[in-house]
Amino acid sequence: MNFVVSKEWLEEHLNNDQIKIVDCRFDLGDLEKGSRLYKENHIPGAVYFDLEKQLSAPVSKHGGRHPLPDIAQFKSDIEKAGIDNAKTVIAYDGGEGLYASRFWWLLQFLGHEKVFVLNEGFKGWDEAGYVTTKDIPDYETAEFEVNIRNEMMASYEEVKEVVEQEKKSPILIDSREGRRYIGEVEPIDRIPGHIPGAINKFWAEGLEQGSFKDSKEQKKRFAELDSKDQIIVYCGSGVTAAPNYIALKMAGFHNVKLYAGSYSDWVSYEQNPVAKGKINNKKNPNIS
Predict the structure, then answer these.
(1) For residues 264 and 63, what is the distance between their CA atoms, to the nearest angstrom?
(2) Residue-by-residue DSSP string for 273-284
(3) Owning domain of residue 161
(4) Is the distance from CB of 142 to CB of 82 less than 8 angstroms?
(5) Which residues does the UniProt record annotate as the domain Rhodanese (predicted)?
(6) Where does residue 97 fall: left (phi above 0), alpha (psi -120 to 50 degrees), or beta otherwise?
(7) CA–CA distance, 156 with 226 (Å, rounded to integer)
(8) What is the domain-level CATH number for residue 135?
């Protein structure tokens, strides 16, 4: 199964009316930047989806910093973008990979299988000299049938059970950078550290210059794990875990779930323990 497409492929199929393109550019430090960039320039035919306005629900006490969007509202948004179950959908961001991966995961979760991330994002497209536009498309509203794939998502209760019972399976994978995992720094969430028992696989190591590494390289990243293992992947708020989710699927893992609320949801419950200390990237804590 393919998860990504190249800029060359998209350029070749740009005028295919069975393909819909979604611009997911965003900047956590400047919440309106993605929208501004879209209005200035985007791939022809692309519609804009905002991480916080369309790809997330409003923040509440629990659920993390980027809760999953209301399903009915997200369904309406994708229908307004002209997306139905038959269309092939290409999502891109600025080339980071995380925001497009968030859209990919959400659309897959709703039951759409023909959705892909554009390797290198808008940066690669623009640097190649391909056509861009300021024109904002107005598509006829489509009909999308939702078929929720619950096997893609891990609940808070499921993660809590793994921690409390010290289960060896499913394996928790923390997708944040090592310094946040060990609790050395925490720029956003209430308390530094990680969910007890989790191993660390920094999401950005699955990409190189804006492109997902191939399946062979992804298998090397997760070589100490068995592809039959049950995996729950998380990050700070459920966004950067999405490219790790894709990377695990590329590596041949079948039983992968995303803990959507992630670490920010976990620490919103003050009674929950957190762990700190050296990086562990092996599933068996007794292996040194």
Answers:
(1) 8
(2) --B-SS---SS-
(3) 151-266
(4) yes
(5) 15-134, 166-275
(6) left
(7) 24
(8) 3.40.250.10
CA 156 remoteness from chain centre? 18
Q: Is residue 279 part of a domain?
A: no
Task: Render pLDDT for 185-235 as a digit per residue (tens, 0 to 9).
Answer: 999 998 999 999 999 999 999 999 999 999 999 999 999 999 999 999 999
Q: pTM for the full model?
A: 0.95
Catalytic residue numbers read 235
Q: Which helix (H) or strand (E) covers residue 184, if one does?
A: none
Angle of helix 241-250 relative to helix 98-109, nearest 10 degrees, comes to: 70
Span between the terminal Cα atoms of the chain, in Å: 34
| Locus of tokens 């989790």 | 198
45/132 same-domain check: yes
Residues 141 and 38 in one domain: yes
Residue 137 and residue 159 in one domain: no
Q: Which amino acid is at 66?
A: H
The DSSP symbol for 218 reads H
How many angstroms separate the Cα of 280 from the Cα of each of 67, 84, 166, 173, 262? 27, 42, 16, 10, 18
CA distances from 284 to 62, 66, 98, 114, 287 (A): 30, 31, 28, 36, 6
Helix or strand run (H / E) with residue 88: strand 88-92
Considering the domain architecture, whether residues 10 and 126 belong to the same structural domain is answered as: yes
- List the alpha helices (DSSP H) in the chain: 7-12, 33-40, 71-80, 98-109, 121-127, 156-164, 178-181, 215-221, 241-250, 262-266
| Of 176, 173, 221, residue with least CA distance to 197 | 173
Q: Flag whether pLDDT at 281 surpasses 80.
A: no
CA 122, CA 43: separation in Å to the nearest integer?
A: 8
